Amino acid sequence: MGKPETVLVTGGAGFVGSHAVEYYAEQGADVTALDNLSRIDTLETADESRNTAAYNWNFIDENYPDVELIEADIRDGDALESIVEGHDAIVHTAGQVAVTASLTDPRTDFEVNAEGTFNVLEAARKADSDPAVVVASTNKVYGNNVNDIPVREEENRYWYDDADFENGIPESLSIDGCEHTPYGVSKLAADIYVQDYAERNEVQAAAFRMSCIYGTRQFGNEDQGWVAHFAISTLNNEPLTIFGDGKQVRDVLYVKDLVRAYDAFLSDPDGKSAVYNMGGGTQNTTSLLEFLDLLEEKSGMRTDISFDEWREGDQKVYVSDTSRARNELDWERKVDFEEGIERFVDWYESR
């Protein structure tokens, strides 16, 4: 297929979506960014100073005037079909993004994540331009099965205590027989639709089950985007609440590395898998406590910390096994966490 030439990014004003828009605009592709600009309304703890969508919509408009900006909703299947036609690639990042919001309003969560993704796949299937599709999925599809893996407690972190998982969580970990959250269920439904459409050769598509993605132009909050939330709170000297003991570990991936993985699939989707675990892998991990130390090292600041009960659906350790992406997509992470945080701090302080 080669590099996509006409790219639609759903959730184009979001954190990941805006970076996909920027990436393809820089490549010289014709890019359409679609967003309903609702994210600030769906997150309980967000405030206007952290309005990711408004900031990124304006960023795209100012820096990439050739990008077509469309305010629309993926829940409107008919509108989506007319927008999709003519594109040869879709980066589908639009979604309800917070576990917390899914617990209080599971219907909206379902309609956006499950039905919205179904609409994208249907529009792609019907389009004469035959677009390939990548979908932003999540590690939450594995539900509480992740917490059945034995972990050991170390001074500042937990880690897997089972040799079968020394390289992280593979795509083959069961999604069944465990507790999920509504968010995990809606994203899993979307994920399985992606696999089905790909398996039946209706659409060349892949779901990227993402771990912690971070980077510039991300305004995290307590509900979603914890790396940015911790960094911004520290830089603003705002108190932070840690749910749990702070030893929980995640693999972290800089957003531009994620977009390169998307592009590797979209540029050559033939014969590729329909699911990829995507994160920093075992070489790029941090616990919350370790991250606070890194922030202090980079910014010279440390804010007040309090602790609260573990949150529903949280995982003590989640680290992606990224070997499938490395082997099939010839993809490698390029930005380590220390460099990525330096970029984030520089961006935030220069705004």
Automatic annotation (TrEMBL):
Identification of the protein by name: CDP-paratose 2-epimerase
Pfam entry (one): Epimerase
Protein species of origin: Haloferax massiliensis
Sequence ranges assigned to domain NAD-dependent epimerase/dehydratase in this UniProt record: 7-279
Coiled-coil features, chain-numbered ranges: none
Top-level taxon of origin: Archaea
Residues spanning the signal sequence: none
Family: Belongs to the NAD(P)-dependent epimerase/dehydratase family.
InterPro entries: Epimerase_deHydtase, NAD(P)-bd_dom_sf
Alphabetized PANTHER family for the sequence: DTDP-D-GLUCOSE 4,6-DEHYDRATASE-RELATED
